[in-house]
Amino acid sequence: MNSTVEAELNEAEILARNYVQKVFESVIKRNPFENEFHQAVKEILDSLVPVMAKHPKYMKNGILERIVEPERMVSFRVPWVDDQGKVQVNRGFRVQFNSAIGPYKGGLRFHPSVNASIIKFLGFEQTLKNSLTGQPIGGGKGGSDFDPKGKSDGEVMRFTQSFMTELYKYIGPDSDVPAGDIGVGAREIGFMFGQYKKLHGGHPSGVLTGKGLLYGGSLVRTEATGYGAVYFVNEMLKSKGLSFEGSTVVVSGSGNVAIYAIQKAAQLGATVVACSDSNGYIYDKDGIKLETVQRLKEVERSRISEYVKEHPGAIYIEGCENIWSIACDIALPCATQNEIDEAAAHTLVLNGVKAVGEGANMPSSLEAIDVFLKNDVLFGPAKAANAGGVAVSALEMAQNSMRYSWTFHEVDDKLHVIMKNIYRNSVEAAEEYGHPGNLVVGANIAGFIKVADSMLAHGII
Ligand SMILES: NC(=O)c1ccc[n+]([C@@H]2O[C@H](COP(=O)([O-])OP(=O)(O)OC[C@H]3O[C@@H](n4cnc5c(N)ncnc54)[C@H](O)[C@@H]3O)[C@@H](O)[C@H]2O)c1
Hints:
The protein is α/β, with parallel strands linked by helices and 461 residues long. It has 3 domains: 3-68, Glutamate Dehydrogenase, Chain A, domain 3, CATH 1.10.285; 72-203, Leucine Dehydrogenase, chain A, domain 1 (Rossmann fold); 222-385, Rossmann fold (3-Layer(aba) Sandwich), CATH 3.40.50. It has helices at residues 3-30, 35-47, 49-54, 57-60, 63-67, 116-132, 153-167, 186-200, 221-238, 256-267, 290-299, 307-310, 342-350, 366-374, 382-385, 388-402, 408-432, 439-458, and strands at 72-81, 87-98, 104-110, 138-144, 176-179, 248-252, 271-276, 280-283, 315-318, 330-333, 355-357, 378-380. The two termini are 40 Å apart.
């Protein structure tokens, strides 16, 4: 490269950096105290600097200023009556972040920690993740600070019906299609679909995904996020001549994503030695017996600590943070945001971890990601590694439109192909923009370009 071209490149890079910094500062100013949203925006904007430097059209057209601002966000009162006859009030949210490439799509989370910041970070991430799947779906997210833990079926039903009575006004098969997330599984989706159906009339299958198989759901949707994360990590491992076969794996969480990540990793020959819930974690050196975890969590809705009563060879440790001190080859955080901090990342590295695949959304802090990248740990960011869930949701929408169902094998094959494509596109984008092997940068760029170019095509709207 001659020195004039180099100097121009540097100048473009400086301009791009200043632009990104300015947009980030305005996000902080306009969204005070929303730490999770700031964190997600920072991670994404930082990785887009080389894109801004190479394609100034995005700066000229204010794409970053527009992409960090949700198209719409609603927050609403959700009143309901508990089993004691007492009136309870929760807050509901839906963010419709970006519809440039398709209808808003993203899950609903029911958890006491839910607030505007969490919903916006998830909606922003979802926009790029959905683009990365290669399917025509925009980004959205929603939920409530309702805690389903310890509630009766009747209470969950009355809450979800009240939640849907308001959410109903904002969603539809061609505009916004929610799904499940933390605290929202088959039971909650069933109640929400029932209420939407009652208000709307007919059988509007396409309005929600993650539905039961009896009324328009897709095979493999339940397994999709966990299976997809393992397929993605498998691609990373293959690039270094490694595999799941014979490896030791630690998975956090014991919910939808964790359970099917454990199942697929074990099918590929790994020994999964630990998993957790929000109270603590279990360690079973001979490999976790998944049937027990599934019964405890999916049927009895009890705590993971119960596991050791049936498997005395295993141990239970109160508090979930130390799960990352267990030595493993592969770590799959599948519980919640910011569960791996810098110290936990250092411990994993010291213990010889070779790959980390994010099943949960933003489970690693920015500092933890730095530790992994600096130590050449294969790192699969959430946006790429856990996109299998929403990818199969889009396949569910396709089947609903066709009024047709694919077999388990057909959907699983499609999921596999999608995860391989996400991996390849992320690798290629990372290389093209000067960060070979950095899938955080690669996934952000590959997801961003499709959304940004669609926004350019639509004009300033
Ligand atoms: N369900 C999906 O299809 C999907 C898709 C993409 C990403 N995700 C993400 O995956 C993560 C898990 O979602 P899910 O659908 O499995 O939810 P879930 O409600 O089925 O399970 C969550 C699990 O995490 C545990 N947990 C919560 N806080 C914890 C903590 N601090 N430490 C350890 N465990 C904790 C809970 O006890 C539970 O076992 C979330 O970040 C979610 O946004 C889910």
